[in-house]
GNAT family N-acetyltransferase (Pseudonocardia yunnanensis), 157 residues
Amino acid sequence: MTSSGVHLREITDDNRDAVCALRVRRDQEQFVASVATSLDDAADEPEENPWYRAVYSGDEPVGFVMLSWNVPDERSGVGKYYLWRLLIDEHHQGSGIGREVLTQVVDLVRADGATELYTSYEPGEGEPGPFYLRFGFEPTGEIDDGEIVLRLTLSAR
């Protein structure tokens, strides 16, 4: 399956159950919270200005992405735009979908005026760090709650 049909959709009552049913591999569960937990976190932390979307390939939900979107500087130690969650269902990993989602997210935040996008990950066997580094994120040298903080500098297009 190619990633060319990958797009982001709002989560609605019509697709919420299907999106919440998406799962990473068992060995990845320590690195990313479930969609349901992520939606709860978004509701519990409105000050993080959560922005989230379902990831679709054609008409099939295949993942989930959530950011803190343009958060005031005084609130954040990890930047105004922060990739909070990226989950690609175990059956759809390795096909370029994660990279395509990240490319779309970068285009969206850049269009909103962002010059940097941050994320972080928990180190461990099977961690997502190499994925982010291949995309162009660089370590900031900071550790936040045990997670390695990464920054992607966004060049103007």
